[in-house]
Amino acid sequence: MTEKHSLKKTSRPPLLEFENVTVIKGDKNVLKSLSVTIQEGEHIAILGPNGAGKSSFIKAVNREYYPQPHDDVVFRIRGEEFWDVFAMRSFIGIVSNDLQYAYTREVSGREVILSGFFSSIGLFNHTVTPAMEERTDEILKFLEIEHLQDRPMTMMSSGEARRFLIGRALVHRPAALVLDEPTTSLDLHALHTFRNLMRKIAQSGTGIILVTHNLHDIIPEITRIILMDDGRFVGDGEKEKMLTDTKIGGLFNIPVKVREESGWYYATGY
What we know:
By secondary structure, this protein is an alpha/beta fold. It contains nine helices and eleven strands. Strands 5-6-7-3-8-9 form a six-stranded mixed sheet, with helices on both faces. It has a three-stranded antiparallel sheet with strand order 2-1-4, with helices on one face. Strands 10-11 form a two-stranded antiparallel sheet. A hairpin with a 2-residue loop joins strand 1 and strand 2. Helix 4 packs parallel to helix 6.
């Protein structure tokens, strides 16, 4: 049975509100009666094995996937059932491996960030304003990637390219940044840099929704963990109560020891 996370009531509508959301693609239920409420400013990790449905959940958030229609379905962002996708990107920024693959082309890092204003892959006949250039300069400085801005994406490492995609997602100052398996293919140095960057973003006031299968991705600022398996949320609660030997061992179907060190969690013994 899924454990429910108690949420503080606020006057503003939740950032995200799903109730009984089921998504079918082809002959497969990729999401099965998902229910979750996420408030603005929360730092959350959605943790589960490969194939758990994590990427499908992100596609539902991004309105690439829509739920099966039923009377008891709730599918809201900021209290609204329907959103223009371009307007939605102004308060939920999403960085995915699909997006990184789409940017495997001769586009400079600066152009990647500027393209976020137009929700395009690169710049075409778009009119870039001085305000957009100024915001891009702010992001380059904040992410500490000014020295890479003229380098083509095809010449960057995975970690460098991911930081520009984050910059692209931040152009509209979104309320939350959704990161889908962000440390895939990163070496130890790049992982260290990227985790520090996530902490900096979280501390700046942007909510983090981290989707991962790695405990070591979960930065100390994340306080809530949602466990996911087979298209369902199977646990939802405070980090200390979710990241235990029993829960993580059961989620990944292995004997495991979970240890905490200075706010970071690691799995050993498997």
